[in-house]
From TrEMBL:
Gene3D superfamilies: Leucine-rich Repeat Variant. Belongs to the XPO2/CSE1 family. GO terms for molecular function: nuclear export signal receptor activity; small GTPase binding. Keywords: Cytoplasm, Nucleus, Protein transport, Transport. This is Importin N-terminal domain-containing protein. It comes from Rhododendron simsii (Sims's rhododendron). SMART domains: IBN_N (SM00913).
Amino acid sequence: MEWNAETLQFLSHCFLNTLSPYPEPRRAAESRLSEASDRPNYGLAVLRLVAEPSVDEPIRQAAAVNFKNHLRSRWSSSDEEPNAQPQTLAPDEKEQIKSIIVSFMLSSAPRIQSQLSEALGVIGKHDFPRRWPALLPELRLSLEKAGEGSDYATVNGVLSTVNSIFKNFRHQYDTKDVAIDLKYCIDNFAEALLMIFKRTAGLIDNIGVSGGQAAILRPLVESQRLCCRIFYSLNFLVLPECFEDHMGEWMGEFQKYLTVKFSVLEDGGGDGLALVDELRAAVCENISLYAERYEEEFRGYLSGFVETVWNLLVSVSASSGRDRLTVTAITFLTTVSTSVHHTLFSGDDILQQICERVVIPNVMLRDEDEELFEMNYVEFIRRDMEGSDLDTRRRIACELLKGIGSNYRERVTQIVSSQIQSSLALFSENPTANWKHKDCAIYLVVSLATRRAGGTSISTDLVDVESFFGAVIVPELRNQDVNGFPMLKAGALKFFTMFRDQISKPIAMALIPDVVRFLGSDSNVVHSYAASCIEKLLLVKDEGGKARYIAADISPFLLVLMTNLFGALGKPESEENPYVMKCIMRVLGVADISREVASPCITGLTSVLNKVCENPKTPTFNHYLFEAVAVLVRRSCEKDPSLISAFEASLFPSLEMILARDVTEFFPYAFQLLAQLVELHSPPISQNYMQIFEILLSPDSWKKSGNVPALVRLLQAFLQKAPHELNQEGRLAQVLGIFNKLVSSPSTDEQGFYVLNTIIENLGYDVIAPYMGHIWASLFSRLQNKRTVKFVKSFLIFMSLFLVKHGSQNLVDSMNTVQPNIFLVILEQFWIPNLRMITGSIELKLTSVASTRLICECQALLDPSVGTLWGKMLDSIVTLLSMPEQDRVEEEPDVPDFADNEGYGATFVHLYNAGKKEEDPLKDIRDPKQFLMASLANLSALSPGRYPQVISGNLDPTSQTALLQLCSSYNVAIV
């Protein structure tokens, strides 16, 4: 794409239309840009458009975003999935972009500058510093010139870019290469960083933190914040000598920014206070880093910072909207509390103050918490129940208590227990006005509970769980008003869920109907917590791994439970509630499902399925939905086969709709459910299924890698249930074509063997014999060209299965038809050396029995001229059967899974409840060791004196010893 007036006009017009409020021109423009992005120098042309002053700023800004995203997808190719990656930029285009992007970025307006800074960071992630040595000197020179001229728009542009590049050091291990790169950055930028930091500090001092104009002070504060973030990156892995030498200068300014008040910004409205708090938070992160990693060097500054941060925290805790600063400040105190300097917190009065002035104010519910609870239940639960709230005031305050408690456990327990009782007393005085105090008490108990080592059980020293549950939690659960004080109800349900192991079964059983009632709450959080509570209760195990709650326990209220669960899915914003659907799945997996329950459940689930097909947007919910359908089908039909036809009538329209509407996200699920239905169905297979069989055999169905495992699963079901139909109308040739395609690629060869093994198991040799030459040719080609450990093991298992199903002679003859005597070559080069690598109980039995039959029945191996081969084969069989897996199986290199693609709908997700049952092809043989010894004894009796000599000459000493032990164990002799 050449840069000329025509290109300028084309790109300007396209980016203008991407801003259109109307979908048609917007989509058309996006499509044209997508096509253009494949042309050489597209990225360079867009960058030139961004820098073109004659173009309106909104268009240039849209182009800057596009340029950044273009670089993200095309600057560096992915080795994991090369076929799915767009073509990377040509080296010449990359070099041209790198030569101009810094100057373009520094001369741009702030919003465009931020996008180009991120784009530059993308390049830097891959090329800096080794493939872009000119970048840092150019940035440093720009910073020094801008600093001398007090041009803080440019200063902050440079610092923002450097911050974007250097933050990579926060996510890397301290390897030799990383250490070299870090040293290069420190040598070339640390001095300039300190210079601009001190220069800016001087300007702030001259202006005066209380006077001056906000417009002048704002970029200076932002500059210091960026300097602090770069400081954090450069100090993250090691303490550089230049920072240690100048620690006093850095720490003096850090101390200042935590103590002074920037009145003109903080009291001036707008985002001034947030800007200053961001600087303070950056300082807190820096001193936390030093306190944690460079304790000795930081020792002299520690107590002063503890006092400063404490004073700051007491004032900040009372303010709303200052969460980030509060969290980083508490994190610093928590770091100190677990260090050797924990004695700073040893005084009883200090512990009391921390609890009263920091912990309780931050644990107490705030207006923002209530708003989140009501307006965004998904985010509230993510923070509150799922542990993603480490950056929230409530959780970090409790982390501070845990930190102090690691050294002063008894005193912390005593103080917090007293605070809990005080909060509950306040609630008792006026429950309506003081309900938040009870919530605070419950939150403290739950958040400070500890998980017992090696288990899932939760314990606490703060209260006696049973008495607290009875006195504090049960009254909330018994409350008939499911909508009153919903945050308190949610806390009670969370407590029940957390301490479910400690609540005795009789007490829990008496309360489950109340929890079921809360499924009808209008609060999304409350009915989600109720569903989660029931789901988690059904997972509780007693000693010995026995489930505490069984089908009989939930039968009395099963119908109302299922009714309320489906009712919860009808609540606004809970139509795709993953907690409710997971509970439905769990209940169906435990309950005794009668026809009276199964019928409304399948109706309800298919109704939900039809709705989500219109716009699949919640992957977790959708997965639990399909698991719920699968477990309902499996457990109902196993108990009452007459339900199969009813389920087919309900499910088929939905599954056909998924295929007809091309709902690709659901294809793997649909194929797995169809496989489950086929397996449950008794032959002959109905015409409905045979129509799907035709879709299955279409090459187009197999193009998307994410569908392959599910398609193979469905194909296996058809091969098992309809082997005769398979051998009609050329279908077997089509199936073998699918096998051939799958087995030719290392990413899908295992799936190809699943297909092949199922054919071998379900069709007679007379049917498959005409095709065996082509099958062996495909397998030999892979052995020769793209052999992997995984392929060889699968190949060995296939040969073993073929032998036990169709006999050793057919195996030998069909292989030798491809090439004379190739069987013995395969045996020597692949079967014998890799037999010991087999894992899995069924696979081990299959391959050992097949190998035993080879050396005891196959004429090709009974010939005295191949005695050495016979002996080495026995050596491998004995090793396989006698040596522990960890001693005989070498670590094999990881082969990237073909399904490890990114993006919803691109991957195969296994349905546990629709899984294929593993079949044992040798049910009549229980002990492969016994089979080996009996077979050897019978063989040796036919030729006395021959085999002991072969054994002593070809088995290594370890195997000979193991064989003797087997002879003794099974009381047989090899004569």
